[in-house]
Amino acid sequence: MKPTPPPAVRVMPANEVAWEDLQAIFDISKNSRGCHCQWFKYADRDWRQIPHEERAMLQRDESGCEDPSATRTTGLVAYVDDEPAAWVALEPRVAYRRLLSKPTVWSGRHEDKADDGVWAVTCFVVCKPFRGMHLTYVLAEAALGYAREQGAEALEAYPMVHSPEVTITWDELYVGPLNAFLAAGYEVVSAPSKRRRVVRVDF
User: Fold this and answer.
1) For strand 9-13 and strand 154-157, is the pairing parallel, antiparallel, or unpaired?
2) pLDDT tens per residue across span 133-158
């Protein structure tokens, strides 16, 4: 059963929001603050050489915050009662260099990795006061609409199977729980590991 999100939630492309709002979402944990959704874009050696402050500036440039005229951004921001509450990252899959080489993404799949018509959801960040409100469900669905509007031919993601009897920290679930995607209409296309699934919608 699809959970009911809070009534006063709205989702906006990141280029239409203030940089301070996006920073407020990312300033919640060491992992999200240190990453700024750059980890999937660099190999390990390059990643380690980028200071945290530079990662933040890369995210600001890529997301186009405060530039409503930008033709594309790198994520969506959810607000609850006008407070910045959550983020989801999505772009053409080719933007994520690390993703293109991950065995858990490509196991058993045979397709063109360089197909820029396929987009990918790679990360969720939810501010602590808003956890438990099912905002990942809201954003997984909103990502479909945004990718379609931008001309994507397909959208895929790489969620974890979350069993109630298994304790998982929030940071481990940065890729999102499987149920959030299934509720939005994504279909499982592969199961490369016990806990990992690849889900997808073809438009």
Assistant:
1) unpaired
2) 999 999 999 999 999 999 999 999 99
CA–CA distances in Å: residue 161 to residues 97, 101, 106, 192: 24, 22, 18, 12
Per the listing, tokens 């438990």 go with 132
Q: Which helix (DSSP H) or strand (DSSP E) does residue 78 occupy? A: strand 75-80
Q: How far apart are CA 186 and CA 172, in angstroms?
A: 21
This model's pTM is above 0.90: yes
**Structural domains in the chain, sorted by start:** 9-202 (3.40.630.30)
3-state secondary structure 113-160: CCCCCEEEEEEEEECHHHCCCCHHHHHHHHHHHHHHHCCCCEEEECCE
Taking only the tens place, the pLDDT of each residue in 76-120 is 999 999 999 999 999 999 999 999 888 878 888 888 999 999 999
Give 173's DSSP letter.
G
Q: Which amino acid is at 12?
A: M
How far apart (Å, rounded) are the C-alpha atoms in residues 33 and 16? 21
Q: Residues with Cβ < 8 Å from 137, sequence gap 6 or more? A: 2, 3, 5, 179, 180, 183, 184
Distances (CA, A) of 202 to 44, 141, 144, 188: 31, 14, 10, 12
Residue 76: phi and psi, rounded to 5, are: -125, 150
Mean of the per-residue pLDDT values for the chain? 90
